[in-house]
Specification:
Blueprint (H helix, E strand, L loop, with lengths): L4 H32 L20 H8 L7 E4 L9 H8 L3 E3 L7 H14 L5 E5 L26 H8 L2 H14 L16 H5 L7 H6 L18 H12 L5 E6 L13 H17 L4 E4 L21 H17 L11
Parallel strand pairs: 1-2, 1-3, 3-4, 4-5
Helix pairs in contact: 1-6, 3-11, 4-9, 9-10
Length: about 350
């Protein structure tokens, strides 16, 4: 039985209107998100508010990484998170921003570094922390957790596609409400996030059972995919170094690791870790300074300086900051308000 021509025409018109309405809705949503700039990327915006409301560093990095108040950055994950940018500034006179993002590896961290450098072509310094995740053999350097690469993208197409997310729509509404407040609470501009209170909520970190848990020895073999001989993150790091301005100081940090959990000498794991550090060190040579806390130091044998095998406490962070500052001074870096000898 043939359908009524009038009915067919009505359905066709309805379908066209539905598609047009959906397209207009998408354009409207995209236009609103673009105008509001929910993560303060600096692209065209209607709301003249600097910074973002309190949120995690994955999305806050877009705002902090372009802030002209800072001319140097700390790049990494939670293994460098406790290094305070204010302390580095006090020691060197260089205004640092903390751009570490917990749970990230070299791929995401190099994206953050590149984003910072795009917005700071005359950056004074870059501090990059390379932990065991940098020893992956996967040339794609894939993220282990979701990461908003679109938010740091240089091209408009990637950025616009990224805006078409429900989470972005929620943040757009949140930012409008936040910006309309007389004195809105802003995420910490320099990005410092002290993780010690979070660990302390889990209980006494120095209970015997917790010390025993973080003292378990490492296996003799490397983790899957980290045995070398190729370490593609080193090649990507070298490419970044080659793009740095000649007067930008560079410090590569191998973060502290609790001694009992370090690779045992003579094992394949130790050989792989040594080869990885050598490749990364060569990638920043000859201009880069290296601060290596991955080896055998007295402080690394003290369980009360750690929360777990790789997350240390403030006393150790202060020692690490002092060595980073010394490396920066050795590289000739310093700001106008650097302490006088």
């Amino acid at each position: 039985m043939r359908a009524d021509p009038a009915t067919e025409a009505a359905w066709r018109l309805f379908s066209i209107r539905l598609v047009v309405a959906a397209a207009l809705l998408m354009v409207g949503v995209l236009t609103l998100a673009l105008a509001v700039d929910p993560y303060d990327t600096g692209r065209p915006r209607l709301l003249a508010r600097d910074g973002v409301r309190p949120q995690g560093p994955r999305t806050a990095a877009a705002s902090r990484g372009r802030d002209p108040a800072f001319t140097a950055a700390i790049i990494g994950n939670s293994h460098i998170q406790l290094v305070a940018p204010a302390n580095l500034r006090a020691a060197t006179g260089i205004p640092f921003v903390q751009l570490s993002v917990p749970g990230t590896g070299p791929g995401e961290q190099l994206l953050v570094a590149d984003y910072f450098l795009r917005h700071h072509p005359r950056a004074q310094a870059l501090v990059i922390a390379a932990d065991s995740f940098w020893c992956t053999g996967d040339p794609a350097l894939p993220p282990t957790q979701p990461f908003p690469t679109w938010l740091l993208a240089e091209d408009w197409a990637t950025y616009l596609r990224g805006l078409l997310r429900l989470r972005v729509m929620d943040e757009t509404v949140n930012r409008i409400g936040w910006a309309m407040q007389a004195t809105p609470r802003r995420a910490t501009p320099d990005g410092y996030w002290d993780y010690e209170p979070n660990y302390l909520t889990l209980g006494d970190p120095d209970m015997p059972e917790r010390i025993a848990a973080r003292s378990r020895p490492a296996p003799g073999d490397p983790d899957p995919g980290q045995g070398g001989p190729d370490f593609p993150a080193a090649a990507r790091l070298r490419a970044l170094v080659e793009r740095l301005p000649s007067d930008t100081a560079l410090v590569l940090v191998f973060p502290p690791v609790f001694a009992p959990t370090q690779a045992r000498p003579g094992t394949p794991r130790a050989a792989a870790a040594r080869a990885c550090r050598a490749a990364l060190t060569a990638a920043v040579a000859p201009r880069g300074r290296v601060v290596d806390w991955s080896g055998d130091r007295p402080e690394l044998h003290e369980p009360r300086l750690f929360f777990d095998a790789s997350h240390y406490r403030k006393p150790l962070a202060r020692l690490l900051e002092a060595e980073i500052a010394a490396a920066l001074r050795d590289a000739g870096a310093g700001g106008a308000d650097a302490p006088r000898p």
